[in-house]
Write a structure and sequence with these properties.
binds NADP nicotinamide-adenine-dinucleotide phosphate, alpha/beta, about 210 residues, 8-stranded mixed β-sheet, two-stranded antiparallel ribbon
């Protein structure tokens, strides 16, 4: 697929680098293609192209949003998505590792509000970037789970394909409004690791018994 990345820092680079190695075409979307993170990403992976925001979105099948949440409103409002999938990897984080929107609404729903003509799917938000760089846990016999939310089933199917390429098992947790709960899962992970020194190389797994036993 042709993938555009708005944001190519810790999260964007980890995802783009692994997906490029799986055969996807990566274009960094930035109105300053000389910005430090763009230059740094291209020096680490010269296969990445870079174009202005709207140009990169126009040629993409899927757009990743991996920016600081505070940049999202201003970045997204002028852009045209024409129904394309936008994967929201961002998290609104407030003081003391709290929910940045006071837990009243998810960041993903705000992203949908600002990118009105996009089909927003929340994914890649619940773990630190370390597990996006390397999602392989060979000793367990199961893949790490990636919980996704969105209002459009076909869009979520496409995101599942990308998840599988990265080595994640996808579990669809429902409509985009469920993202509020995913964002709280993020706060748990961030509190454990960034505030309380838990080792960052851990994810959750989804285990389900068939039937009701
Ligand atoms: N870090 C984690 O472990 C982690 C894990 C999951 C989710 N998240 C979430 O993912 C998001 C990104 O986190 P990160 O750690 O990857 O941040 P980061 O390393 O600071 O990278 C942010 C990227 O966004 C770019 N950017 C900012 N404004 C932009 C704009 N208007 N247009 C285009 N690009 C723009 C920056 O480019 P320039 O600075 O070069 O302009 C940079 O490439 C955050 O919302 C975070 O909460 C983080």
């Amino acid at each position: 697929m042709k993938l555009a990345f708005i944001g190519i820092g810790n999260v964007g680079f980890a995802l783009a680098n692994n997906l490029q190695k799986k055969g996807h075409e990566i274009t960094i979307a930035h109105n300053n293609v000389k910005s430090e993170s763009v230059v740094n990403a291209q020096s680490k992976n010269p296969a990445f192209a870079a174009l202005g925001l709207q140009e990169a979105i126009a040629i993409a099948d899927v757009v990743f949003l991996a920016t600081p949440f505070r940049a999202n409103e201003e970045t997204l409002k002028p852009l045209q998505f024409k129904g394309k999938i936008v994967i929201d990897c961002t998290n609104p984080v407030g003081p003391g590792i709290s929910h940045g929107l006071g837990s009243k609404i998810s960041g993903a729903e705000k992203v949908q509000e600002w990118a009105k003509d996009a089909s927003v799917v929340k994914s890649y938000s619940i773990y630190g970037f370390e597990n996006l760089e390397n999602p392989v846990f060979p000793n367990y016999g199961v893949n790490p789970v990636m919980l996704i939310a969105g209002n459009n089933s076909e869009s979520k199917q496409v995101v599942s394909l990308l998840n599988a390429d990265l080595g994640f098992e996808t579990v669809d947790v429902g409509l985009l409004a469920q993202s509020l709960h995913l964002e709280h899962m993020t706060l748990l992970w961030v509190n454990m690791v960034r505030a309380n020194s838990h080792h960052p190389n851990f994810t959750w797994a989804y285990l389900e018994r068939s039937g009701f036993y």
